[in-house]
Amino acid sequence: MKVKQFCDSILIENPKVFSLPLCLDCGQAFRWEQNNGIWHGVVKNKVLNAKEVDGGVLFYTTLEDYNSIWHDYFDLARDYEKTLVDFKEDEKLKQAINEFCGIRILNQDPWEALCSFIISQNNNIPRIKGIIKRLCETFGEPLGEEDFAFPSPQTIAKLSLDDLAPLRAGFRNKYILDAAQKVATGEVDIYGLKNMSIETARSELIKIKGVGEKVAECTLLYGCGHINAFPKDVWVKRIMQEMYQDGLPKCTDGVKGIAQQYLFHWRRNSKLFENEK
DNA sequence: AACCAGGCGCATA
DNA sequence: TATGCGCATGGT
Q1: Do residues A156 and A250 share a domain?
Q2: Is the C-beta of residue A133 closer than 7 Å to nucleic acid chain C?
Q3: In sequence order, what are the beta bridge partners of A50?
């Protein structure tokens, strides 16, 4: 991945597998917004503006922040080109990749991923985004302008159900509180999950009320670097039933999370399935 | 106006 | 182990 530094920005030169809209609006992160081609978002206490230009992807940031945050966040050290070549042995994955090449798995903050996917349960994406936006605006640290950090587990842990009511998250409020409390006390070592086996990390996460198999897998995949985690929501279950009755093909071994994201996005957005809505 | 949404906890068998 | 139901809210 070649990088060029300018006075106010960093250019990722002609990446083969990196699309901002696909990465930032494929249902893995909920806080990015696009205006006039500029993608705007907040990660850890840093704001980023980025856009696609002739010659690559431009990040308006310093080399220092690129190296310490954005390179990792966008998973730029991983060779997706090679993985996708392997995936194309499978006819269905090949179609998904041909239509939506450019998705990468984001390395989000584990607490934000946990909290976001607790909110996601039995919910739809537009409403998930709204709840998370209100959560950040109400309880997150202001970062100037219109930006807010994602509120820390310590901050949420001090709140009551009544405090959370304005989020309009419904029955999920009690789950958000339980998660914040278990993380804040250290009962669940959220920042340690990255270095645990995926099995151990799963068993840690499901100690939290409102965290079952699906939310745990999402947290592991999007927040803990466990690239083989495989969340099965209604769309992925649909695909598995329709196309993979005998399980995923061997070419996805070790990186099932990437396969999951391509299949999920394909099944939801491809014209091939539009008659099924 | 129903049906559904990136599910989960709980009761029951 | 395996179903089935209720849950808060609002998008489509």
Answers
A1: yes
A2: no
A3: A39, A59
Q: Read off the pTM.
A: 0.97
A68 lies in the same domain as A85:
no
Helices (H), A36-193: 63-65, 71-73, 80-87, 91-100, 110-119, 125-139, 153-157, 161-164, 173-184
Q: On chain C, which bases lie within 7 A of the protein's CB atoms?
A: 7-12
Domain residue limits at A29: 2-77
| Closest nucleotide C1' to the C-alpha of A171 | C8
Nearest to A250 by CA among A103, A87, A97, A91: A87
Assess whether A157 and A268 both reside in one domain: yes
CB proximity A123–strand B (7 Å threshold)? yes
User: Is position A51 annotated as part of the catalytic site?
Assistant: no
A145 pLDDT band, cuts 50/70/90, is confident
What angle (nearest 5°) sits at the alpha carbon of residue A184, between those of residues A178 and A186?
A: 100
* Nucleotide at minimal C1' distance from the A172 CA: C8
Can you give the CATH number for the domain in which A208 is found?
Answer: 1.10.340.30
Provide mean pLDDT across the span A12-24.
98
Per CA to C1' distance, which residue is closest to C8? A170
**Active-site residue among A129, A214, A232, A277?**
A214
What are the pLDDT digits (tens) for A72-126?
999 999 999 999 999 999 999 999 999 999 999 999 999 999 999 999 999 999 9
Please identify residues in chain A, positions 155-184, with a C-beta within 7 angstroms of any atom of strand B.
171
